Amino acid sequence: MAIRDITVEEIDTMSSWAAERLHVDKPDFEWTRSVAQTYRQFGHHDEAIQAYGRATELQQDHWSIDYGLGEWSKTAELLENIIRRVEASEDKGSSPAEVITKIRFWLAWAWVQVDQHEKAIAVYDGLLATNPGDYASILRKIVALRRQERYEDIIEFLQQLQRDKDPAYGISRLSMTFHSNVYAMALHNGVVLAGKKTGNLPFVQAAYRSAIEQAMDQEYLPMEPHTKARYRVALTSELADILYKYPQDPEDQEEALELWETCLADADDIGLAPARLSIAKSLSTVYAEQLHQVGSDTKQTDEILDRLLQLSGETTADLAADFGGAFVSTVDTRLLVGRYYSKVGMKKEAEDCLRSHIRIGIDLLSDDDPSNDWQGYLRLASTLMYYGDKENALAAWSLIGPNEFNKRKDVDGLDKANDSTGGNASGRKQEDDDITLKQEMNKGVSSDGQQEPDQPSPLARANKTLRRIKGPLPPYGCDGGSCEHWWTYANDIYVCMDCLDMMFAKPCYELLLKDALELRTCNPTHDFLHIPSWDEHEAEQRGPKHVRQAGKIIPVDERIKEIRRDWQLEGDQTR
């Protein structure tokens, strides 16, 4: 479901309305700070800075305001200053230790962002000395060690955690780390990479097995069986991934398939949608590899296609409503079946397999709700790509732009632009969302907080105001394993046509082609669709209701009619 942004004007209107109703003639410190927090919550950072600045003028000791700015800008020097002021202040609030701990956590993260890893690790060690059960700090320390490529230190840290028992829960701190950060790919990637680099993958496998076993201990969380099952399913899926990609024994890959297939049923039993999506995606990649190996016109081919179709029916029907039909459609294993049919020349079978996705995409673009148009474009872009229609897939992607573009009314003088063969002017390359320090449930991943490529450092951002460019997509992350580049609109993405939901930023794509990625995620022999960098000039030329086709700008409505005709959907309702 697309969520409409709250504008600055709407926040100002609501603030004025509330002030009038509450007879607030002159906004005080708390009022102004609340307005600043509201701006910040909805991504209006210029206005947030200005409001925070006004608030600082209304109170002599305004360390909490500086903390609001410091938490956002991740400015280490400012956060250190705040800690000193809080410790020296007579008015520390009801829980000064908690306040200082929270600020120190952000301070360590700020040091990581400016590559001061030793300082960050020193802060994390201090936090863990006070509270050994601070599993968020354990995760952050592993991230900081990975940034320094200190893989031996990561393994030693994990071994120490394995030896220590959490007295509150009765299991090892290493298992608690896995449980507490079960969806944090920063943890899983860091642990696997450390095991790979140091020759300790058997230890890593054993650590996951232990965490799974301890999750089912009868004395552990006895009143939370669903939570325990969630840990078991998610970690078993991660273990299967390790066994399949980095087998240590001949039987490892076979065990991985068995674990995934068992987890699939378990995820259904407990209603764990993120794990089901992840498992289905992993299995589909294996099945697609098997299709490539067995060739066509064999009994095995039919069996594998049936497995993919079964995965599709089980996955998409129940999850589309809960997790947004557009995103779920991009991990529908039916797409790989259509891809197979198209590659072997069975066009009719491919169209029959994929037509339902095309129909839903067109229906979304044909209703009266413009806020869900991006979902229609995403469905069309994904489906047409797997069908092999790269030109129209790219056209659909070109309509998923920044929110400012999507909200624009159509451009004037379009007839003149239609005669132009423009679109080659280089627009400014815009970066997408910053990744804040939080676990992302979307796609079952978690950012480790690293800056986007080409973005200025946090200290540079403290000295000037930057506006983040956002698009309508749920954040999609690079699958390279280390760069942490994210997109919320179509902007220089390399999308795999032989995997589901697999995409790369250019640096990671180039490493993939050399088979030089640190972690195994995709195959360099696969086919890719390159979505160009967002071209602001070209987008302004045509506007959001037009698309460029064969060098000419045509109305989207006209192209939709053509797709209806090409996919035998003319009997469906049209605009």
UniProtKB/TrEMBL annotation:
<keyword id="KW-0802">TPR repeat</keyword>
<feature type="region of interest" description="Disordered">
    <location>
        <begin position="410"/>
        <end position="435"/>
    </location>
</feature>
<feature type="repeat" description="TPR">
    <location>
        <begin position="29"/>
        <end position="62"/>
    </location>
</feature>
<dbReference type="Pfam" id="PF13181">
    <property type="entry name" value="TPR_8"/>
</dbReference>
<protein>
    <submittedName>
        <fullName>Uncharacterized protein</fullName>
    </submittedName>
</protein>
<dbReference type="InterPro" id="IPR011990">
    <property type="entry name" value="TPR-like_helical_dom_sf"/>
</dbReference>
<dbReference type="InterPro" id="IPR019734">
    <property type="entry name" value="TPR_rpt"/>
</dbReference>
